[in-house]
Amino acid sequence: MKNLIRTTLIVTLILVLSFPLMGREKEKITLKMSRQIPQSVGNIQPLTATGDTLLNESFEGTVTGWSYIDNDGDGNHWGIYEEDDAPPDTFAHTGLRGAAVHWNGSGNDDWFITPKIGIASGKTVEFSFWARSYLSSFLESFNVKISTTGNSISDFSTRIDSVVDVPFAWTKYTYDLSSYAGDSVTIAVQCVSVDEYYLVTDDYLLTATGGGSPTITSTTTGGDWNDTLTWIGHVVPTASDDVIIDGLVSVNLSDTLCNNLTINSGDTLTKDNNGRTLNVAGDFTNNGTITENNYSEFTIAVAGDIVNNGNWDIANIIFTGTSDNKISMSNGNTINNAGISKVDSVSLLIIGSDSKFNNCSFTNDYYMQGFGNTYQMQIENGTGYTLDLMKSSTIGGVKLNGNSGFLKDANLNDDDNGGASLENVQLKGVVSVASNNITFIGNDVVVVDTLSKDNNGRTLNVAGDFTNNGTITEDNHSEFTIAVAGDIINNGNWDIANIIFTGTSDNKISMSSGNTINNAGISKVDSVSLLIIGSDSKFNNCSFTNDYYMQGFGNTYQMQIENGTGYTLDLMKSSTIGGVKLNGNSGFLKDANLNDDDNGGASLENVQLKGVVSVASNNITFIGNDVVVVDTLSKDNNGRTLTVEGNLTNNGVIYEDNYSEFYFNITGNLINNKIFKDCEINIKGDVNQEIEVNNPIVSTTKLYAMKGTGSYQWKHDGVNISGETGEYLEFDSLNYDVLGDYVCSTD
Fold first, then answer.
1. What's the whole-model pTM score?
2. Please, what is the average pLDDT of the chain?
């Protein structure tokens, strides 16, 4: 309570009769200054009343939050005067008191300033007051100015009225301030009279009617939420009140309620030492600080949107509405240490700006939703915003549609909460898979920078297509599996353990020039549909093989080089094909290891072999009519048998190493145009076969007869070959001098 200063002012007036005088002539009257207003040029206490009336001041009781500035420096300033034996209605339009300011012979520059007043959005706002000149012969002048920033003179840059010659009779001045709805304002009456007498005012009124809710603002000193002294007007907010925090306010009730809530810049909302929940029925705007202590959690339950322009450091944010919610923040701001959930699983949580979350988790709320449920989240459509989780925050129990925006530095972790799914999003920074319950859906999840995993073995499920423009890698602790139902496009670095194509339709794998897939086991669950090589592709230290666990041993899947393209499947002398049926469609297989002893074998058809293709299994078959050796066909260090069920054309080099033998069991035709040496060729067909020798074959060649029950007799061009009565006819080499037709007669 301020001390009341009572002053008796004796003024001599020169009463003007029938001729002009140079001075003031007056009767003797007594004026009493009832209260002195505190001078202030700094922060002032905001004032908000309940209901539609935000300011109603007739100076009859305790006056709170008003201030003055004696800018002309004459020591006379605005004060609250009460009538004594002055004529009635001299200082008070109603009651006994009003606000007035004394004259300055050189000109007044005296400011009378309201408290800061918060106005809800959507309101029709009207400000009014009454004024008069003390004497009819000395008419006053004033300006009315408004500020949305503070109460220093420099803040009042907007003038809403300028009045000259204020009437002697009480006159009401009214202003429409509806354009300031949704803001906080301070209003000043600036006396600019020059050598007049007293400018007198009374009955200041500001109303906000129509849409919106009543606004209650805290004092600058703040206090506990449920303490009436914390709030200007001494009214604790209710669920229907908009609230402005303009000091340090502590939530000290179990279920605190308000409508919209705003924390002003430089001010703080916190809680006491107990776990507390603040229920906000509307929107929450933080321009200052929201924090909890270290004792227990602070939960903000919001039905509307959140805008964070300040510091945010609390435990839980729960969006409670059934309509879409939006969370946004200004550049450089962060939400810290918050669990962020949404009760409704149908409406959206929208990321409405570039946003940063540090040590936060986006997950469903167990208590309101139960385990196994998810909520839907979107990056605002058409914006390209970035949701930055700063390598410390997680997404789980959420369906995120990025709308072609960016998810950055996120941990995808949800083993228990219904899983997390991503679609139509670009992954920036390092996004880490930390759960086996993560799914990429749709066709537009794109790795821009890096996709990795935690220290455990992980499987990422991709329900659509998958594009890598950055890096996919695993740590050294355990395997990372990408299970893809759609296609893979690799335009970057790929270095993981397993790729499993899970769909029952054709899948395609392609990559841009110069890119490689490294260290991957590549399998396909379905044995009927195709895995198509859709570009020139390089695979380093990879294996194309069936998946034992999904298909079992002995099964194969079908693979094609895209028809009509002539693409090259380059296995870089380090990758293997096994458990696969490859149709090259006249394309190229380069530098491949053909190795499948256990997985149902590998077969090749209609393919051209480039580089060095090595047979490293006895379970390899060339089928069809068009396997062509362009460069080199060889084997590993073990004895190997290659089965050729179709035609084999050699335009390059076929040879064995020096360690052991290389056998060819051929049931089709053989065309040799280059070097074929140091092997053993067994011609074993059930129909007529041709060996076209355009270059000598320097390999043991055996022509096998069909099995008979009696004796065998070999003929060359119809003539019996003496002594050749066995099951096969053997040549050390095939030269031009042995050309002709060879037939075996059997009983």
1. 0.72
2. 87
Place of tokens 């339709």: 505
Amino acid at 455: N
CA–CA separation, 625 and 629 (whole Å)? 13
* Residue 10: predicted pLDDT: 27
- H-helix or E-strand spanning residue 743: strand 742-746
SS3 1: coil
Q: Which token pair is 306?
A: 């959140």
Phi first, then psi: give them for residue 653, nearest 5 degrees. Answer: -130, 130
Cα-based distances in Å from 707 to 391, 566, 703, 720, 726: 71, 41, 12, 19, 11
Query: Tokens 């003390």 identify what position?
Result: 134
8 A C-beta contact, residue 322 and residue 347: yes
Q: Which three-class secondary structure string do you get for 438-494?
A: EEEEEEEEEECCEEEECCCCEEEEECCCEEECCEEECCCCCCEEEEECCCEEECCEE
pLDDT grade, residue 597 (50/70/90)? low
Query: Phi/psi of residue 25, each to 5°?
Result: -115, 125
Given the DSSP bridges, would you call strands 430-433 and 450-453 parallel, antiparallel or unpaired? parallel
Query: How far apart are the C-alpha atoms of 441 and 400, rounded to whole Å?
Result: 10
* Residues 533, 567: Cα–Cα separation, whole Å: 8
Would you say 139 and 168 are in contact if contact means Cβ atoms under 8 Å apart? yes
507-511 vs 530-533, strand pairing mode: parallel
3-state secondary structure (DSSP) of residue 104: coil
Whether residue 576 is predicted with pLDDT greater than 60 in this model: the reply is: yes
With 70 as the cut, is the pLDDT of residue 29 above it? no
Q: How far apart (Å, rounded) are the C-alpha atoms in residues 165 and 149? A: 30
Distance of alpha carbon 690 from alpha carbon 671, whole angstroms: 8
340, β-bridge pairs: 317, 362
pLDDT of res. 14: 24
- Cα 575 to Cα 493, 516, 586, 596: the distances in Å are 17, 12, 21, 12
Tell me whether residue 565 is exposed, middle or buried, using C-beta atoms within 10 angstroms of its C-beta: 0 to 12, 13 to 18, 19 or more: middle
Q: How far apart are CA 51 and CA 38, in angstroms?
A: 28
Specify the pLDDT at position 184: 86
Query: Which neighbouring-strand residues pair with 261?
Result: 243, 284
**Which residues have C-beta within 8 Å of that of residue 567, sequence separation ≥ 6?**
533, 534, 535, 536, 537, 561, 587, 588
Residues forming a β-bridge with 9: 31
Q: Which two tokens stand for residue 98?
A: 């009003």
612-654 pLDDT per residue, tens: 999 999 999 999 878 999 999 999 999 999 999 999 999 999 9
Residue 506 phi, psi (nearest 5)? -60, 140
Is residue 529 classed exposed, middle or buried when 0-12, 13-18 and 19+ CB atoms within 10 A define those classes?
Answer: middle
Distance CA 360, CA 363 (A): 10
